[in-house]
Design goal:
Elements: E1 11-15, H1 18-30, E2 34-39, H2 47-54, E3 58-61, E4 75-78, H3 87-94, E5 99-100, H4 102-109, E6 113-118, H5 123-136, E7 141-145, H6 151-154, E8 163-167, H7 170-174, E9 183-186, H8 194-197, H9 200-208, E10 219-223, H10 227-232, E11 239-244, E12 252-255, E13 258-261, E14 264-268, H11 277-292, H12 297-306, E15 315-320, E16 323-327, H13 334-341, E17 349-353, H14 366-369, E18 374-377, H15 382-392, E19 396-398, H16 402-412, E20 418-421, H17 434-452
Parallel strand pairs: 1-2, 1-4, 2-3, 4-5, 6-8, 6-9, 7-8, 9-10, 10-11, 11-12, 16-20, 17-18, 17-20, 18-19
Antiparallel strand pairs: 12-13, 13-14, 15-16
Helix pairs in contact: 5-11, 5-12, 16-17
C-alpha cells in the first residue's frame, strides 16, 4: 500500500457503514486522517460502529444530524447506496466538501494495477471469470469492489505485481475523482437504476466515469453488440478493444463456433462452462482482459471450461436422477430471464418464476417461454405470469414458496430435463433478497439429492 500523506491530520466524515464504510474508516485512520463515522443504525445494534469506537475512531449513530457538517470536514466518503439527494450529501456539497466513494480511496493507495468492470448485466460473472483466468495463468487476480472484499480493505495487502479485479457499480463510479484503471470493461448499458439516477443518460454517464482518466496506454473493453458502445468508443482517450458475438471485430469475437482474439483462435465456444448467449459475451469480455494481461490461451480455456457460474447467477447446481438444476435467482427482471432461457432447449425446461408484483405484465416474455415443458409460479406476480403462460400455451402450477416449487417441478420432470429458477421478479414479497431466495432453492436441491441417494 502506498503511504500517501494527503489525508494526514485532515478531518474526514465517513457516511454510512456496511463493509465498505468500515473498511474506508480503517484505511483513513491508518493514513493519519481524523475520522468521524456517521451511521443510521443505533449504536447498540451496530457491531461495526462498536468495533471502530474501540479502535479510537469517533462514531455517531442512530441519525444523520446536519449540524455535524459544521465541524469543518475536508472530505466526505459516502456509502455508494446513499443517494446524492440525501440531505447530508446535499449539505456537504453546498459547503464545498468533496464527496467520494471508497473505491477512490483504494485507487489512491493501490500498488496493484486495476482491472475495473462495470455495466448493467454480467458484471459479477465477468469479474469472476477474469479473476479465475488470471489465477489459472499464474498471476494473482484479487476480487474487490462489489464482490469479494471492499476495495479499500484489499489494497492494504495487495502487492505491485498483483491485479485488482474490481466490480464497480454506477453508484461507486459517481464518487470518483482520479480513479484510473489500466484496463476498464463495460459489459453493456441498459436502462436500470433509473429510480436512483433519474434518467438513462445520467446512469450511462455515471458508468462512463470509469474511463475518465484513462489514456492511450490504457485499454477500454466495449461491447460492440451495442450501437451505444460504438458511439461511446469515439469519446475516449483510451485504446478501445471491442468484443462481439455478432461480427468480427478488432478484439474478441465469435466466428464459426470459435472464440477469437485479434485473429487468433482461443477456444471453442461450446467449451465455455455456462450456457447462454449472454455468457458468450461475458467470456469474450473476459478473454479480452486476459489477453491484454498476458495470459496464455491454454489457461483461458482451462478456466472458462471449468467455470460453473457465480452463485445465484445461472449457477449450475448439479443433477438428481439426470434432472439438472440451475439457480438464477439474480434474474430479477424480464430481460435477465430472457437471457437465461436463451441457453436452453425450452422443451426440456421447467421454469420456476414469480415474485414481487410491480404492476407490469409479462407479454414481452411470451416468445421466450413458448414451448416450455411447464412453469411453476410463486409470489405476488403469479397471476400476471399465468396470463403470459396462457398466451404462450404453457401449462402452470402454483406453489406457496420456492421449496414447494422445487418439489412440484421435480415431480413433473423426466430424465434429461432441467429445472431453472429464473424468477423475472424481485424477491421482496417473500424473501429478504435474491440471495435468500436462491439459498432456499439450493437447500431444496440438496434435500432432493440426499433423498435420491438414500
Amino acid at each position: 500500500m502506498k503511504k500517501i500523506r494527503q489525508f494526514a491530520n485532515k478531518k474526514v466524515l465517513v457516511l454510512g457503514l456496511a463493509r465498505s464504510g468500515e473498511a474506508a474508516a480503517r484505511l483513513l485512520a491508518e493514513l493519519g486522517a481524523i475520522v468521524t463515522v456517521n451511521d443510521g443504525k443505533a449504536f447498540a445494534e451496530n457491531p461495526a460502529a462498536q468495533s471502530l469506537l474501540e479502535e479510537g475512531i469517533k462514531v455517531i449513530c442512530g441519525s444523520h444530524p446536519l449540524d455535524l457538517l459544521d465541524e469543518n470536514f475536508e472530505l466526505l466518503v459516502k456509502n455508494p447506496g446513499i443517494r446524492y439527494d440525501n440531505p447530508m450529501v446535499v449539505r456537504a456539497l453546498e459547503k464545498g466538501i468533496p464527496v467520494i466513494t471508497e473505491v477512490e480511496l483504494a485507487y489512491l493507495v493501490s500498488e496493484a494495477a486495476i482491472i475495473g468492470i462495470t455495466g448493467s448485466n454480467g458484471k459479477t460473472t465477468t469479474t469472476t471469470m477474469i479473476a479465475d483466468i488470471l489465477n489459472a495463468g499464474g498471476k494473482k487476480g484479487i476480487l474487490a469492489g462489489n464482490i469479494g472484499f471492499p476495495a479499500s480493505e484489499v489494497v492494504r495487502t495487495a502487492k505491485s505485481d498483483d491485479l485488482l479485479v474490481m466490480e464497480l457499480s454506477s453508484f461507486q463510479l459517481m464518487g470518483t475523482k482520479a480513479f484510473h484503471p489500466h484496463i476498464a470493461l463495460i459489459t453493456n448499458l441498459l436502462p436500470t437504476h433509473i429510480d436512483y439516477h433519474g434518467t438513462f443518460a445520467d446512469y450511462a454517464a455515471a458508468k462512463w466515469n470509469i474511463q475518465k482518466h484513462m489514456g492511450p496506454s490504457d485499454f477500454l473493453i466495449l461491447n460492440f453488440n451495442q450501437d451505444l458502445a460504438k458511439e461511446h468508443a469515439e469519446k475516449t482517450q483510451a485504446t478501445v478493444v471491442p468484443f462481439s458475438t455478432k461480427g468480427k471485430v478488432d478484439g474478441a469475437y465469435l466466428e464459426n463456433g470459435m472464440l477469437y482474439f485479434k485473429g487468433e483462435a482461443v477456444m471453442p465456444a461450446d467449451a465455455v462452462g455456462v450456457p447462454g448467449s449472454h455468457n458468450l459475451e461475458n467470456a469474450l469480455a473476459a478473454i479480452a482482459a486476459a489477453k491484454l494481461s498476458g495470459i496464455a490461451n491454454s489457461a483461458i480455456e482451462q478456466s472458462l471450461s471449468r467455470f460453473r457460474g457465480v452463485k445465484h447467477r445461472l449457477q449450475f447446481l448439479g443433477d438428481v436422477n439426470n434432472v439438472k438444476f440451475y439457480n438464477d435467482s439474480k434474474s430479477t427482471n424480464i430481460l435477465a430471464t430472457q437471457k437465461a432461457l436463451s441457453g436452453f432447449d425450452n422443451s426440456r425446461v421447467i421454469l420456476i418464476a414469480g415474485g414481487l408484483d410491480r404492476g407490469n405484465e409479462f407479454d414481452e416474455l411470451v416468445p421466450d417461454i413458448e414451448g416450455l415443458k411447464k412453469m411453476i409460479l410463486v409470489g405476488e406476480s403469479a397471476p400476471r405470469l399465468k396470463r403470459a403462460a396462457d398466451k404462450a400455451g404453457v401449462s402452470c402450477l402454483d406453489a406457496e414458496d420456492i421449496r414447494a416449487a422445487v418439489k412440484l417441478a421435480f415431480a413433473a420432470a423426466e430424465p434429461g430435463d432441467l429445472i431453472l429458477l429464473s424468477p423475472a421478479n424481485a424477491s421482496w414479497d417473500m424473501y429478504q433478497n435474491f440471495e435468500v431466495r436462491g439459498d432456499e432453492f439450493i437447500a431444496a436441491f440438496n434435500a432432493l439429492k440426499e433423498t435420491s441417494h438414500g
